[in-house]
Amino acid sequence: MTATIANPPFRPNAPGRLVRLSFERTRFELQTFFRTPEQVFFTFLLPVLFVLIFSTIFSGAIDGPPGAEQVQFAQYFVPGMIATGVVSATFASLAMTVAMEQHEGLLRRLSGTPLPRSAYFAGKVGLALVTSFLDVVLILAIGVILYGVDLPTDPIKWLAFAGVFLLGVGSCSLLGLAYTRLIRTGSSAPAIVQPPYLVLQFISGVFLQYNEVPSGLKAVASIFPLKWMVQGFRYVFLPEWVAQDDYGGGWQVEQVFLVLLAWFVASFLLARFFFRWNREQA
């Protein structure tokens, strides 16, 4: 009598399979991204152009209290551009590309394949993480080489930088996925995504000193994660007296992390509730 050995059951959501497919999906997303010049421009070159233009036009120094060392404008400006570069590579990029894939029917077709949905989302977040990191490296390199931006030497500040970066990438990526619910057609995606993102850059103090933003607009900016990302990155690169002028007495690092963590949780819930794999779903 010959014994038969039963094949093990197929487990589509087995951890090992999910990890492997997530890496494969990330690799695919990166290949697609770098083959799309428009995406590369808005993700990398646009923030770089802003750094070059603003750091050249406003090349002076910011005066502090008596006896305090001046801060060059580029030193002040670059952390804000890092924050907006992260938002560009996460929220703006994902909201537009995923919305277009929804309306083109790609997500509906993918739902009929063995690819787990979690692997698709992992690929999108992996793309956002890699492009955000490259954006940060590019902006820092330009700031240091062309404008003499000083990098921090305190390891604690680099840990804070990494924490703000990861929470910012996570919360803004999930928020971008949730935001696709507001995009009715693929062609309207840029018009729906870019205006609020551009407005938030100005009222969050990316392009100007935060103490020059009217108090009412500051209250609006403080609702959203970009303002807190800018504040967290500036803590890493700037002296304490800047926080006294801009943020009312200190960098409030603990509050920065609490707000970004709250946004990460809220963005996850919003993405779970609002995102639709198929646009025809209610």
Helix and strand arrangement:
Layout: H1 15-34, H2 37-57, E1 61-62, E2 71-72, H3 73-103, H4 106-110, H5 117-147, H6 155-179, H7 189-203, H8 215-221, H9 225-237, H10 240-246, H11 253-274
Antiparallel strand pairs: 1-2
Concise summary:
The chain has 282 residues and is mainly α. The chain has helices at 15-34, 37-57, 73-103, 106-110, 117-147, 155-179, 189-203, 215-221, 225-237, 240-246, 253-274; strands spanning 61-62, 71-72. It is 70% helix and 1% strand.
Q: What key attributes describe this structure?
A:
282 residues; mainly alpha; two-stranded antiparallel ribbon; 11 helices
Descriptive account of the structure:
This protein is an all-alpha fold and 282 residues long. The chain has one domain. Helix content is 70%, strand content 1%. It has a two-stranded antiparallel sheet with strand order 1-2. Strand 1 and strand 2 form a beta hairpin. Helix 2 runs parallel beside helix 5. The termini are far apart. The model has no long low-confidence stretch (mean pLDDT 86).
> Structural class given helices, strands, pairing?
mainly alpha
Strand order of the largest sheet: 1-2
Distance between the termini: 57 Å
Mean pLDDT: 86
